[in-house]
Amino acid sequence: MSLAVLASRALCGLQAFAVRVEVHVGPGLPAFHVVGLPDTGVRESRERVRSAIISSGFDFPAGRITVNLAPADLPKESGRFDLPIALGVLLASGQVPAADSAGAAPDLRRYVFAGELSLTGAIVAVGAPLAIALAVARSDPDAILVLPPGCADTAANVPGLTVLAAATLVETVEHFCGSSVLQQAQGRHCAGPSPTPLLCLADVRGQPLARRALEIAAAGAHSLLMSGSPGTGKSMLAHRLPGLLPRLTVDHALEVAALASLNGTDQGYSDLPPFRAPHHSASLPALVGGGARPRPGEISLAHRGVLFLDELPHFQRNVLESLREPLETGSVSIARASRTLTFPARFQLVAAMNPCACGWLGHASMRCRCLPDQVDKYRNRLSGPLLDRIDLQIALPTTQVDWMDEAAGESSGVVRSRVAQCRERQLRRQGCCNAMLRIDDIERHCVLDRDAAALLRQAMLRWHWSARVGHRVLRVARTLADLCAQRQIRGVHIAEAIQYRQPWG
Q1: Are the C-beta atoms of residues 70 and 19 closer than 8 Å to each other?
Q2: Could you say which of 3.30.230.10, 3.90.180.10, 3.40.50.2000, 3.40.1190.10 is the CATH number of the domain covering 3-184?
Q3: What's the pTM?
Q4: pLDDT in tens, 107-154
């Protein structure tokens, strides 16, 4: 046999497209060519494959070898194609038997290979094994994925997918020759306790309005903006939101771990929602994603979790404006000359800011030094379209001197149970959280009684709200009704939702 065809995967963002590795060994002067839009890392596989085959005790064919990575218009990168190329060379040169009708050898058409070869013939780790495994499981659940041992244990977490761990090229060849069998990988289950334990809401004393807003944000997956003087508890509250959120499902946890692996972080996977808090000096590529080889940014690493932006007005204007589309769509697209990559970014935004540049506007004892136009300039760093997309906007009052004497509030566990019940009602009714309701779903599920409709109309006229703000208020009111286990939105729910659109007090 002079032609062999094997299957592999090419990563484009979180997507892993199918690649056919076609290897032809023919007569002619010795040559080794790789075609199909390979990058430098793939072209260098020729030397790695040659040395690995010889070091493993096989014969490297003395002929014209052509490797085609199809489809040819899909960019190929990294060394993950080394293993299928080496197996293709051995198969095409007759050193590995092809599958026959009698079943004397495994049918390679069922297998998907990814692994980088060392010069000794060992198979070393490849990047983003979870992304590859998720793509294989979704497109062909009956496929068998062959990966290096560490990567195989990670990929085996994908439910229903068979993953084999191959440590060396010799072991892989022996498996297909029938002389031995590759071990099936066992998944590394959810990570144990978080290295930074979840913080409890009972630590926050006072600030009943902010505690209530935090519970509503968790219950409906709403975005939240807190404005208040230094020391009012904005950051303290934000860091306690993950403890109120339900645990991630297996599919969501794997998706989060796959995104982290694209950034070179392989830490297994956890059912805890991610929490990202970039500094206000973060650049646009750091927050949104980018680079010569686009990688996910902070908004994608916060997918299915919380993105906390402290000192919101101090972020660059173009960085803040880049949040508008992901807040609406739950994804971000990064365009390059050759391709456009899309990363998921269904994050829950929590932001904090001072009421003015000095921070003391409205404080009970500290004197604000800002002039009115300076206050306006500071607040105008946040554009109207961005504020329209934030569901809850509250002003935190100054903490009182006797706050230490106040009784501890409810713990995160108690609040989380109410949040879980509220989200369960939403999922049963509409299949998603209230913050993600589409326009047609709002008309179907956000039914107002007469008082609620009149109150919302008055508020939109008084504050000149856009239709987008009206829809945001309806989504929050729907969450308030769900917390009360009521099917219809009443006037009291609209009134409370309106209360959470006053960021400056």
Answers
A1: yes
A2: 3.30.230.10
A3: 0.89
A4: 788 899 999 999 999 999 998 899 999 999 999 989 999 999 989 998
